[in-house]
């Protein structure tokens, strides 16, 4: 297979009448119909003037039509750029400009907002769905002449400089993972895949393309349902999901609030999780309820796709205190350890930053050559991506995640650069300085983002409601701080930088003084 | 004072560590739609309401209409408790 959209053409030929996709609204499409809808969208885009390699934004709630549109973009040899319809307009606007999107598929309501605020003239064209329109931006062409060949999609993640950064992925970067996963997990037409992750989140790559490659059924689940574990449990059970790929946060919420035992359902046959550490105690409880499943821990930043995997034993000992390994490299990925000077092979006992090379590794970041260079190590005549993750090799040869080397944190499976939170705060007219620190959760509790800030001399603290409302227009909901602390000044180190260690201790002390 | 509001307010401030001084928290302060409490805190709130007031949420009842303000919460709890009160 050469391209991701080949998966759909093959499925339509092999399994034309099998169910391909089921929406939250109950709408469903069989493979033939899904392929036909994608082909019509592809024609629509071509008629509107899309050219190979053009970026096309996709800002729509998950639906069977959205899945068809996504495959339509790929079939037109364009690049899909998924946007979160719930994210602040300003952020989505930035993304469209950053990747030089030529077109945008979005809802009628959002289209007006985009046109009003974009500052770029756009033509609004209808699509076959009356609630969806195609915006064609009249940008000056070839503003960025250097684009990699063969791109399939661009995923934006949190950026440390205060703006999201675009990870450019080629068809082949995803295909090697998707084809491997389909073989490794014996995925087939009888499988029902839960599509839990939003399309702008890289877990969705597995759901979308593994289900279509294997002729299975993709059960779409929107964010409102994902956040309501009781509804989610009911939906997974009702449609007999067999393959569930989720963050540990989603699975833990399902376990704690989903009233799972009352479902009397043995669960999926395959549970894959990624994005953060899954502690042994809740995993043990989940295995008791979803007793028929195999469990795998998958690892890989958006930049590399999934690149290592680990089969979790069943049952796991509930009292295990060390996290499970992230395992061994997938066959298409090569891994080394980097100590800052030397690249070392994976040998038991060795520790370092994980380097990844191979077919699954991204083509680069959008428009930031400098940033791209910092992220690579050149070794043995090839480029190795620096993950920023510190790992150690255990005695059985598995990789174990230790921690981050920078200021990126994971909350509920989402990547958050604390620098982006600070940049958001600094946009507020009454904020002088802002420093965000991460307070790791203890004893299974969630970690917290605490922001320390100053106001110009003589000004008191800003109302929390005011700050929250202000940041909502800057940051996606998952990045909003948990606590704001007003200080007269930010403590500095001897080199005039903010003393984050002192702030972290202060945050910890403040946490302890709160009533239990 | 409404005891449901009082106990819930106490829970929001002390357990969920709502980033809001108690003086800023009014009966009509939007909690969910303002994103003052996130989706996970919302679930903890539901769990608290179920245990404390011996009610049970149906999946579709976990929504802004029933949970966005202290006043809405009090009304919902009263509504859920009603049939039992008449039956008893």
Please name the defining characteristics of this protein.
heterodimer, A: 516 residues, alpha/beta, 9-stranded mixed β-sheet, 6-stranded antiparallel β-sheet, 28 strands, B: 88 residues, mainly alpha, 57% helix, globular
Could you characterize the architecture of this molecule?
The complex is a heterodimer of chains A (516) and B (88). By secondary structure, chain A is an alpha/beta fold. Chain A has 15 helices and 28 strands. Chain A is globular. The mean pLDDT of chain A is 92. Chain B is mainly alpha-helical and 88 residues long. Helix content of chain B is 57%, strand content 0%. Chain B contains 4 helices and no strands. Chain B has helices at residues 3-15, 39-53, 64-67, 70-87. In chain B, helix 1 (3-15) crosses helix 4. The model of chain B has no long low-confidence stretch (mean pLDDT 87). Classes of the chains: A alpha/beta (516), B mainly alpha (88). Chain A binds chain B through residues 227-231, 234, 249, 253, 256-257, 412, 446, 463-465, 468-469, 472, 477-478, 480-484, 514-516, and chain B through 14, 17, 19-21, 24, 29, 34-36, 38-40, 42-43, 46-47, 57-60, 62.
Topology:
The complex is a heterodimer of chains A (516) and B (88).
Chain A: H1 4-14, E1 19-22, E2 28-30, H2 31-47, E3 55-59, H3 64-75, E4 79-82, H4 89-98, E5 103-107, H5 108-118, E6 122-126, E7 132-137, E8 151-157, E9 165-170, H6 171-184, E10 192-195, H7 203-214, E11 217-220, H8 223-226, H9 229-238, E12 243-246, H10 248-257, E13 270-273, H11 280-289, E14 294-299, E15 308-312, E16 328-329, E17 333-338, E18 343-344, E19 351-358, E20 364-365, H12 369-374, E21 376-379, E22 382-393, E23 399-404, E24 408-411, E25 414-417, H13 418-426, E26 433-439, E27 448-454, H14 464-472, E28 483-486, H15 500-513
Parallel strand pairs in A: 1-11, 3-4, 3-5, 10-11, 10-12, 12-13, 13-14, 27-28
Antiparallel strand pairs in A: 1-2, 5-7, 6-7, 8-9, 9-20, 14-15, 15-16, 17-18, 17-19, 19-22, 21-22, 22-23, 24-25, 26-27
Helix pairs in contact in A: 1-2, 1-3, 1-7, 2-3, 6-7, 9-10
Chain B: H1 3-15, H2 39-53, H3 64-67, H4 70-87
């Amino acid at each position: 297979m050469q391209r991701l959209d080949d998966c759909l053409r093959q499925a339509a030929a092999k399994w034309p009448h099998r169910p391909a996709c089921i929406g939250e609204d109950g709408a469903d499409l069989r493979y033939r119909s899904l392929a036909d809808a994608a082909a019509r969208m592809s024609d629509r885009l071509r008629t509107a003037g899309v050219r190979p390699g053009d970026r096309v934004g996709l800002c729509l709630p998950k639906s069977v039509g959205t899945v068809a549109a996504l495959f339509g973009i790929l079939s037109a040899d364009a690049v899909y750029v998924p946007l979160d319809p719930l994210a602040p307009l300003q952020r989505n606007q930035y993304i469209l400009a950053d990747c030089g999107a030529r077109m945008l598929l979005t809802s009628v309501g959002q289209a007006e907002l985009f046109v009003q605020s974009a500052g770029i003239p756009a033509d609004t064209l209808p699509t076959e769905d009356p609630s969806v329109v195609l915006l064609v931006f009249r940008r000056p062409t070839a503003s960025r002449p250097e684009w990699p060949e063969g791109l399939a999609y661009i995923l934006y993640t949190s950026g440390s400089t205060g703006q999201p950064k675009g990870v450019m992925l080629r068809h082949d970067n995803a295909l090697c993972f998707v084809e491997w996963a389909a073989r490794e997990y014996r995925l087939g037409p009888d499988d029902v895949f839960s599509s839990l992750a939003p399309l702008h989140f890289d877990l969705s790559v597995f759901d979308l393309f593994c289900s279509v490659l294997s002729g299975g059924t993709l059960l779409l689940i929107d964010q409102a349902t994902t956040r309501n574990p009781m509804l989610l449990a009911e939906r997974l059970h009702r449609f007999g999901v067999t393959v569930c790929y989720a963050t540990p946060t989603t699975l833990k919420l399902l376990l704690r609030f989903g009233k799972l035992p009352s479902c009397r359902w043995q669960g999926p046959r395959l549970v894959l999780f990624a994005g953060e550490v899954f502690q042994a105690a809740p995993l043990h409880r989940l295995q008791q309820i979803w007793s028929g499943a195999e469990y795998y821990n998958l690892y890989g930043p958006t930049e590399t796709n999934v690149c290592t995997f680990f089969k979790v034993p069943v049952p796991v000992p509930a009292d295990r205190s060390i996290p499970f390994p992230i395992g061994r490299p997938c066959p298409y990925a090569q891994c080394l350890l980097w100590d800052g000077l030397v690249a070392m092979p994976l040998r038991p006992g060795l520790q370092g930053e994980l380097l990844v090379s191979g077919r699954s590794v991204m083509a680069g970041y959008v428009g930031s050559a400098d940033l791209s260079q910092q992220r690579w190590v050149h070794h043995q005549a090839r480029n190795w991506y620096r993950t920023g993750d510190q790992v150690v090799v255990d005695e059985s040869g598995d990789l174990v995640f230790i921690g981050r080397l920078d200021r990126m944190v994971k909350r509920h499976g989402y990547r958050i650069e604390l620098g982006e939170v600070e940049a958001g705060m600094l946009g507020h007219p009454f904020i002088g300085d802002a420093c965000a620190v991460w307070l790791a959760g203890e004893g299974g509790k969630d970690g917290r983002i605490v922001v320390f800030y100053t106001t110009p001399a003589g000004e008191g603290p800003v109302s929390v409601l005011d700050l929250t409302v202000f940041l909502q227009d800057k940051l996606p909901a998952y990045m909003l701080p948990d606590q704001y602390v007003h200080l007269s000044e930010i403590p500095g180190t001897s080199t005039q930088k903010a003393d984050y260690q002192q702030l972290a201790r202060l945050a910890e002390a403040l946490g302890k003084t709160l009533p239990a | 004072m409404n005891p449901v509001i009082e106990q819930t307010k106490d829970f929001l401030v002390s357990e969920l560590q709502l980033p809001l001084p108690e003086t800023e928290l009014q009966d009509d302060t939007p909690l969910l739609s303002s994103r003052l409490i996130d989706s996970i805190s919302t679930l903890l709130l539901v769990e608290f309401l179920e245990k404390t007031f011996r009610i049970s949420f149906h999946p579709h009842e976990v929504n802004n209409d029933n949970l966005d303000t202290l006043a809405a919460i009090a009304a919902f709890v009263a509504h859920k408790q009603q049939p039992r009160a008449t039956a008893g």
